[in-house]
Fold:
Amino acid sequence: MSNPVRRSWGFGPAGVHGVHASQGLHRAWRRLQLVAPVLLFGWVLIARAQAGTAVKVEDLCRAVVEDPNYKVRVQAALVLGKLGDLSAVPSLIKALADQNSTVRGIAASALGELGDASAGNPLRDLVKRESEGFVRSQAIKALAALSARGAGKRAKIFLSFGPFTGGVKSAGPDATKIIQDTLARELGKLPAVTLTLAAADQHNFARTGLQGFYIDGNITRLDEAAASGGSETSCDVKVMVARWPTKSIISWTNAGASVQSGSRPSDKVGARRDCLEASAGQLAEDLGRFFKAQGG
Structure:
């Protein structure tokens, strides 16, 4: 169980005839046969996530771009679209370049459901280069959905994340990734925040009309100690908020947590993740209030 988080703030139907119609129906039916089982399993994952079981957005983001099985990538894209977590946008944009057309199409559809304006240019690029009718149709529908949402979902703030290096030696790359992923996931939920920006807009940021912020920091403490027949993991995380792209520092904030667990290695690994996620989650709450005050 986790103790309260420590924190401080320094800032084929009848009636259709003809060869062409038959071929078109055959292709559509074949695609339905391929995708239907995947969609069914995807809905199972959605139900699990909504019930609070262990389906994590960061795991789905990793799966949609890295899993070797295209069916798993399709499942991940489908669920990410239904969950409505804007931190999934960057991964879904990467999935638009997947070698499998079904993955590309479902990723495009998911971006339309999420409604983040930053997906507009990648979707338009997909329409221009795509030869598969299914993918093009999903991208066009997604663009229409983005347009319909309009100003209500228009991004006002762009967030860029640093490498989070330079912390204690006990905090390796896996630990810093937990902090980065948790902050991106939670802050990406803010309606006016985007985590992605086209290269052209990065070079001409002033023309976008967005406010830019840079978030970086490090893990200042991550250790374990024996406690009541088990183990206690403690961590502290320090985060800097700066203007982007100048990186002029605005303020610092920090948070920490302690988590008790069993003494088995697997228990300690889980406690380590829970501790870091709790700290990053509290930091995200503090930062979220700040960004909301800035118009986010």
Q: What stands out?
A: The longest strand covers residues 211-227. Residues 19-50 form the longest helix (32 residues). The chain is about 50% helix and 20% strand. The CA atoms of residues 33 and 168 lie 52 Å apart.
